[in-house]
Design brief:
The chain has helices at 4-12, 15-21, 25-35, 38-61, 67-84, 87-90. The protein is mainly α. Helix 4 (38-61) packs across helix 5 (67-84). The chain starts with a helix and ends in a 9-residue tail after the last helix. The relative contact order is 0.11.
């Protein structure tokens, strides 16, 4: 569950605006990294991975997943990671220097 402060911060980071102004995914990623807190970054990463998993299942195994399945997998990943407290280890690094 996000705190009120987290929700406010997320609103300030308007993904639609970032995507319209960015010239590459790298720019989108860097802007998200600068504006989201660790919990939101974890959620973004798990959602992206779940979407990628859906794509791979469709491409390589000809399996179709619903949006609900993608969301459920993301939620389950986040829950499992949070229960194991591994999220603290995930973010021990910082964004590398960008050229």
């Amino acid at each position: 569950m996000t705190h009120r402060k987290d929700r406010t911060r997320f609103k300030e980071c308007n993904l639609n605006t970032i995507m319209q102004q960015a010239e590459s995914f790298k720019e989108v990623f860097v802007e998200l990294w600068r504006n989201l807190n660790q919990t939101q970054l974890m959620s973004f990463a798990m959602t992206a991975w779940s979407i990628w998993q859906k794509r791979n299942l469709q491409l390589w195994e000809n399996k179709t997943e619903s949006q609900d399945k993608v969301i459920a997998r993301t939620r389950d990943l986040f829950r499992d990671l949070s229960m194991n407290n591994n999220h603290e280890r995930v973010f021990l690094f910082s964004l590398p220097p960008l050229k």
